Automatic annotation (TrEMBL):
The keyword Iron does not apply. NAD(+) binds at residues 8-13, 31, 91, 96, 118, 142, 272. This is 3-hydroxyacyl-CoA dehydrogenase. InterPro entries: 3-OHacyl-CoA_DH (IPR022694), 3-OHacyl-CoA_DH_NAD-bd (IPR006176), 3HC_DH_C (IPR006108), 6-PGluconate_DH-like_C_sf (IPR008927), 6PGD_dom2 (IPR013328), NAD(P)-bd_dom_sf (IPR036291). The record marks 139 as: Important for catalytic activity. Residues 185-280 form the 3-hydroxyacyl-CoA dehydrogenase C-terminal domain. The lineage of its organism: Bacteria, Bacillati, Bacillota, Bacilli, Bacillales. Residues 3-182 form the 3-hydroxyacyl-CoA dehydrogenase NAD binding domain. It comes from Metabacillus sediminilitoris. Pathway: Lipid metabolism; butanoate metabolism.
Length: 287
């Protein structure tokens, strides 16, 4: 495993590409949007500069890491020599299936296809390809180049060789891994959505303010981040898609909080829009 292609240059795709490049993989980062790629390139340069200032990278490693990344709008170019492709697009099953069908057609026979999903079925996605044994889910966490865990989720037909290759790639990226047998929401998303949704219900019911709910969870339960802060970071639209999927597959206890639905309809999506459960309008980079 030497060459990785990442499909989608949003926060997740960019972070995965960064983690791969600084850990000696050749990386092709693909997106249909030139503007998105330019934004990803600027973000990586800024993060690498910070890493040098904090002595996580040397100046020489910064230059070498950046030179290992290629930015392209062509999926065919991105995957031509890839040993592993990591799809990191929106949590929409139809979109993921469409991409996997195309990847199956254009990737070399040996290429492993991984989906970075927090909830969705790698079995269902893999079934649309001619290589279900080479399909797997690798759930990175936001931000991917800083968070330590990768959940590796086997589909029904995922081979042991594919799992082992995915595990080794994650470990070379200096991640800890857990092996998960497919079930909706895996391990972390089931818990995270449940806690976050209950926090939103408490806010809607007037139990406490957003700040005090988050403070209680951080100090009382020793979570590093409050559930409402976490939802703002992930994106409330993303969180809503995730919990709607869990509601459809796991039932009533995952019914989305009406306040979450209302915020998404209003365009209050969290950090990326400048306002969610908290106001980020004064932060650099907020819209």
């Amino acid at each position: 495993m030497k060459k990785i292609a990442v499909i989608g240059s949003g926060l997740m795709g960019t972070g995965i590409a960064y983690a791969a490049s600084v850990n000696h993989f050749q990386v092709q980062l693909q997106d249909i949007s030139t503007k998105a790629l330019e934004k990803a390139e600027a973000y990586m340069k800024a993060e690498m500069k910070k890493a040098v200032e904090r002595r996580f990278l040397t100046a020489e490693e910064e230059i070498e890491s950046f030179h290992r990344i290629t930015f392209t709008t062509s999926m065919e170019e991105a995957v031509r020599e890839a040993d592993l492709v990591i799809e990191a697009v929106l949590e929409k099953m139809d979109l993921k299936i469409e991409i996997f069908k195309k990847l199956d057609e254009i990737c070399p026979e040996h290429t492993i296809l991984a989906t970075n999903t927090s909830t969705m079925s790698p079995t269902e996605i893999a079934a649309q390809t001619s290589r279900p044994d080479k399909c797997i889910a690798m759930h990175f966490f936001n931000p991917p180049h800083k968070m330590k865990l990768v959940e590796i989720i086997r589909g029904l037909n995922t081979s042991d060789e594919t799992y082992e290759s995915a595990r080794q790639v994650a470990e070379q990226m200096k991640k800890e891994t857990v092996e998960v047998n497919e079930f909706p929401g895996f391990v972390t998303s089931r818990m995270n959505c449940l806690i976050g949704n209950e926090a939103m219900n408490m806010l809607m019911e007037g139990v406490a303010s957003a700040a005090d709910i988050d403070k209680a969870i951080k100090l009382g339960l020793n979570h590093p981040m409050g559930p409402l802060e976490m939802a703002d970071l992930v994106g409330l639209d993303t969180r809503l898609r995730n919990i709607e999927y869990l509601y459809q597959t796991l039932g009533e206890k995952y019914r989305p909080c009406p306040l979450l639905t209302k915020y998404v309809k209003a365009g209050r999506l969290g950090k990326k829009s400048g306002v969610g459960f908290y106001d980020y309008s004064n932060e650099v980079g907020s819209k």
